[in-house]
Design goal:
Shape: globular
Strand content: 25-35%
Oligomer: single chain
Largest sheet: 5 strands, mixed
CATH superfamily of the largest domain: Glutaredoxin
Number of helices: 5
Length: 158
């Protein structure tokens, strides 16, 4: 007879604990971990899912070219390095960037670019703005899940 239980380890790995009950009624357990990936598998996985390359970092110098002069949809994330929800939003955006093909994602650090934050009336963090052909068409203040990001883009005509 087997009794299975699951637990989640760090980095998303799952361990399976299997208890084997012997004929005498005693139980012994063993934890089965998934096989470790080799260095090549880890590198291939990282390159296949390289969403950071799809997220651009804007400053006052290149904001005009990246956002305002861009044709199509641009999602701009106004964030700060010290902001907890902003860090969580950054992780969601990395996953989101993998599934979005034709929209550009741009991040703006408000501490380093206060004039951009003032220009677009950013009063709370994180603030997400959607631009269509250089014009702001939608705004969301606060953390947004992957689904909420898709709805935000859909509502703005993406």
């Amino acid at each position: 007879m087997f009794v299975l239980s699951f637990c989640v380890l760090t980095a998303g790995a799952v361990a399976v604990s299997r208890s084997v009950i012997t004929r005498k009624g005693s139980a012994r357990s063993a934890i089965e971990r998934p096989p470790a990936r080799g260095a090549n598998a880890a590198n291939e996985s990282r390159h296949a899912y390289d969403s950071k390359a799809r997220i651009k970092v804007a400053s006052a110098d290149n904001f005009q070219a990246l956002v305002l002069d861009a044709a199509g949809t641009v999602l701009v994330d106004f964030h700060a390095t010290w902001c907890g929800p902003c860090r969580a939003q950054g992780q969601v955006l990395e996953h989101f960037a993998h599934g979005v093909k034709s929209a550009t994602i741009v991040k703006v650090d408000v501490d380093a670019n206060t004039e951009l934050a003032q220009r677009f009336a950013v009063r709370a963090l994180p603030t997400l703005l959607v631009f269509q052909n250089g014009r702001p068409v939608a705004r969301r203040v606060g953390f947004a899940s992957n689904h909420q990001l898709r709805v935000l883009l859909a509502e703005s005509g993406y």
